[in-house]
Amino acid sequence: MNWALAYREFGWDVWLVEHLDDSQMEAPEEGSARSPQEEFWHATMAEFGFADRQCLIVNGSSPDLDDFRSFSREADLFINFSGQFKRLDLISKRTLKCYLDVDPAFTQLWVETCGVDMGFAGHDRFLTVGTNLNGKDVLLPPSSQKWIPIVPPVVGYWRDRIGQKTEELPWSTVSHWYGYNDLVWEGSTYGGKRNSLLELRELPKLLGAPIAIATDLERSWGDYDEFEAAGWKILSASEICGDVDTYLRFLAGSRGELGVAKQGYIVSRGGWISDRSVTYLGFGRPVLLQDTGWTATLPAQPGLLPFRNTEEAVAGIQSIEADYAAHSKGALMLAETVFSPEGILAPLLKQL
Questions:
Q1: What's the pLDDT tens digit per position in 244-283?
Q2: Same domain, yes or no, for 252 and 197?
Q3: Out of 79, 170, 265, 345, which could bridge 261 as a Cys pair, Cβ 3.0 to 4.6 Å?
Q4: How many independent structural domains does the chain possess?
Q5: Lowest-pLDDT range, 132-141, 176-185, 208-217, 324-333?
Q6: Triad 240, 243, 249: Cα angle to 5°
Q7: Sign of torsion, CA 341 338 290 119?
Q8: Residue 302, CB half-sphere, CA atoms under 13 Å: how many?
């Protein structure tokens, strides 16, 4: 939704399109003709003002399909998130079709070393939130695609929606505990968030302050007790991320973000930047973001600092806290310039 709202804020006419089949849907609840997934889609589209700018294709058909085809005939640009939309036959031939990679390093490794079909076929341009994916220090196999780096946008809509909250939570982050399996390439392991978090386990103890993490880590797992004992405030991701407003209040109510990256992002030096991190910035919350190579294209500055290990994380948070007002102001400035719809999309369109 960040991207859809960003393009709309930039002045574009935006449609959202998705498809489902029987294997992806539960049975309709009593009194409803739609599955819970269909109900969620339509409620979300209405909530964000896309009720007449959407098309959900279910088992190949949709009552909005003719309207979408009509719109598509005149559309200039189609963005396909991670190649998940498979019905490119529904997109006009004149429309520039862009693949958006939001999982840099893993996308390329899956294709080049595992032979996974990531849905590249049929696209004209390839965008990535790996800001350093073309860098000389990137540690990934050569890609068959020419990747155009782009940072995630943040929109003022979120701040307008819930207001500028005062701090109620400590430094925080959101994370899966386990994701997909580790990948190994040329002797290096490209793992997930748990691998990175294990290296930072003692951080709250060293800071002398808790860090809140909304995650799917279960109490029965061995890591739970160890992280809780080290000072992590473990919250339920399903509760925090279960609806938009609760999620936004969590970000806006935090002191700032400890932006922990998947191990694969760090090892690859591909420059991944999180859309969650830029949303923290939009609330004036400073971000201490693990260095994935993003510093090669975006210098550290007030509101956004890098860290590479536990010691640098301690120093980074202490540095921000020493002049929190300046870093909060810097976070907002970054959100309104570097990560704003105009700051991102105007230069991108020139590259396309």
A1: 999 999 999 999 999 999 999 999 999 999 999 999 999 9
A2: yes
A3: 265
A4: 2
A5: 176-185
A6: 55
A7: positive
A8: 13
CA distance 275 to 62: 30
Which amino acid is present at 225?
D
Q: What is the secondary structure of 283-321 as a DSSP string?
A: TT--EEEE-SSGGGTS--BTTEEEESSHHHHHHHHHHHH
Buried b (16+ CB within 10 A) or exposed e, 66-83: eebeebbeebebbbbeeb
Separation of alpha carbons 119 and 103, rounded Å:
14
Bridge partner residues of 16 (DSSP): 54
Give the separation between CA 262 and CA 174, rounded to whole angstroms.
12
End-of-domain residue from the set 102, 126, 154: 154
Specify the CATH number for the domain of residue 260: 3.40.50.2000
Residues 96 and 139 in one domain: yes
Domain limits at 320? 156-336
Taking the mean position of all CA atoms in its chain, how far away is CA 54?
A: 22
In 3D space, the residue among 259, 242, 326, 324 whose CA is nearest the CA of residue 298 turns out to be 259
DSSP state of 329: H
In a domain, 342, yes or no: no
Task: Give the span between the Cα atoms of 48 and 180, in whole angstroms.
Answer: 31
The tens digit of pLDDT for each residue in 55-97 reads: 999 999 999 999 999 999 999 999 999 999 999 999 999 999 9
- Sort 44 into a burial class: Cβ within 10 Å, 0-12 / 13-18 / 19+: middle
Are 142 and 251 part of one and the same domain?
A: no
Dihedral of CA 192/196/198/204: which sign? negative
59 and 130 fall within a common domain: yes
Q: What is the largest CA-CA distance in the chain?
A: 59
- Between CA 214 and CA 131 the distance in angstroms is 26
Read off the tokens for 132: 């350093």
Tokens of residue 294, six digits: 């993003």
pLDDT category of residue 167 using cuts at 50, 70 and 90: low
CB neighbours (10 Å) of residue 309? 12
